[in-house]
């Protein structure tokens, strides 16, 4: 990995990185926030610093949430690192929407492994986020026998909009192996198979076979994933979100969990007056940070 820039912020540093991805066959950017505990000589840790992964929404880069969500304050408060991946492969060689729209292609990888050409050449975002990136970060930061950061075992995941879908999908698909300790989401696309954003992306990346769609759709996955322990999913969404009724439809997830082991353990908090922006996200980041900190063993 190449360090592009180091930014002092709050009590730690935001490290902007670039690397050649095996999954996407492109250069990928990722931002990592190292909290004050990483640098402190006064706070020795017996265990590695855990990680929270934030998956961003349509059109975003790793910089959006790094600059606007204010996760760094919470990371310092509880002692976790933050990982902000990109939302798609990029570059002139990477196919995008032939019509040039913003909700498919560059900046809109939907965190799936594409099976349809020409997208299958580069849009292997599921493998990149959940398999390659944790291993690559581990190799970069934990060198010379000193392992201070945990990118693979004590990890939580969250995200916004398309990234909220990616967080829910990745959490549920990896649930049996406990890939993530906890999951939350901000205004997620909960049932992409049934809404325009998701249908466009799934058809473009996965083709017409609905079984391929259901393999990523949270509303399908959660019916077949048996909850263990006291695991919960936390979701916030604004009642003034302009995408609420057409693309997000949180009620579909609550309907899907009925008569499953998740019933009563998926909390959807609809908050009055809030929209789809980072003003909304940053307002409720503290609650999500506390939720994950408890599951990561920091509280």
From TrEMBL:
UniProt keyword list: Cytoplasm, Hydrolase, Serine esterase
Name under which the protein is recorded: S-formylglutathione hydrolase
Job description of the protein: Serine hydrolase involved in the detoxification of formaldehyde.
NCBIfam families in alphabetical order: fghA_ester_D
UniProt keyword Transferase present: no
EC number from the UniProt entry: 3.1.2.12
InterPro entries, alphabetized: AB_hydrolase_fold, Esterase-like, S-formylglutathione_hydrol
Subcellular location: Cytoplasm
GO BP: any one term: formaldehyde catabolic process
Record organism: Saccharomyces mikatae IFO 1815
